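Ligand-bound model needed. uridine-5'-diphosphate-xylopyranose.
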Amino acid sequence: MKLCVIGTGYVGLVGAAIFSDWGNTVFGVDIDEEKIKRIKAGEMPIYEPGLSEIVLKNISEGRLSFTTSIAEGIKEAEIVFICVGTPQSETGAADLSAVWTVAKEIGQNLNGYKVIVTKSTVPVGTNEKVKQIITENLASPVEFDVASNPEFLREGSSVEDMQNTDRTVIGSDSPKALEILTSLYTHLGSPIVATNLRSAEMIKYAANAFLATKITFINEMAQVCEKAGADVTMVAKGMGLDKRIGSAFLRAGIGYGGSCFPKDVSALYRTATDHSYDFKLLRSVIEVNYGQKDLFMFKATRFLGTNLNGKTLAILGLAFKDNTDDIRDSVAVEIVKKLRGLGAQLKVYDPAASDNARKILGDTSITYCSNEYETMEGADALFVLTEWKQFAVLDLAKIKSLLKQPVIFDGRNSFDKDTTEAQGFTYFAIGKRTNGLEKINGAGNNYSATLIKNGSH
Ligand code: UDX
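Prediction:
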């Protein structure tokens, strides 16, 4: 099939690459000339395992091309995917301006029947407006259909996720469009949920909000576990083996971040409000997630003090999760800002995200190190803020020899509590008591109550 993918962010670039790898002829389009030049030269604008190999292979085999012109990109295409960004606006709703701009240009250049598919995460009703904008901008009467085909890939494993999707969701009010899109995906062998436009748009938000709720549930369980002397990792394991619950997204931590969950949960809450429904559960999810990093900071400052002048802290992890260089809405970056704000000197390391973080954080009071151990030399404590797997296998004896005092604040439960404590560390994890510090253990709950009472977010 001949396809056009507009937008070369995570969804668009990975989508264009994988579609071409399936044997389709694909045009990727982006208004950013510099970005298109770099991609053509094989330089990926995002860090995503396996992506550059697929892009380069399909460019060289003639199935994948890139352009800055929507007119050129859509000319021959049977399906046009809109994959532009839908960031959070000031009101919490999704900012759809890029979608509207693209729809207008598609309308102006439409030269024959095509299915126009929105892959970006967009609120219910967006595709109907896309249809209206295209219709209003047609140069001459041309038949077309719109469809919704939300993407469920995760950053850091997007290539793998798109090839091995659990399901494909296609929404359209046109049987012809449903048939064309179904034919693109049937070879995957996974279930295809064909539905109407509005349900497809809603599925993506419902899935992300549910996953964010699952994380938030385990984060709140972590508070109770700490107070009651249970271990949240074991509790999550015991719960997750129940097939009805499942073990994924039950890792307690410093709260979810990234470019999707925070914005999508807010946007769904906003959609509900717009329809005169107060989605109380989601309101709590947003509130609890916001407070999660403060609980972690509270734990750290109870031990280290709130004046960190003269203290050096080792920081592992800046990305919002492992296997990515993305720092958008990264809780790690928020915590780094807070620690620096209290006067600490920071020595930081992330396997992929340091350059991006430096653009936001600058160099004041921060030294960017080239490996994990370099951060720890002479530091007063070690903080683990991103769940990179390579951090979990670091040599604890070496860490102890490098730190000024053996203290770890592990925001991702990367280390084993018993092993770490047996080696003489004072180990602060999430949802596990710290040995010998009964006064600090469980203090989080009082703090959480204060946060809610003061409405401090
Ligand atoms: C998410 C959805 O998973 C994906 O389906 C959708 O298409 C886009 O949004 P992504 O944001 O790339 O993907 O990352 P994800 O792996 O879902 O992690 C999101 C955040 O939750 C990260 O900050 C991560 O650290 C955190 N997280 C995840 C936890 O704190 N605990 C967990 O158990 C899982």
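The mean pLDDT is 94.
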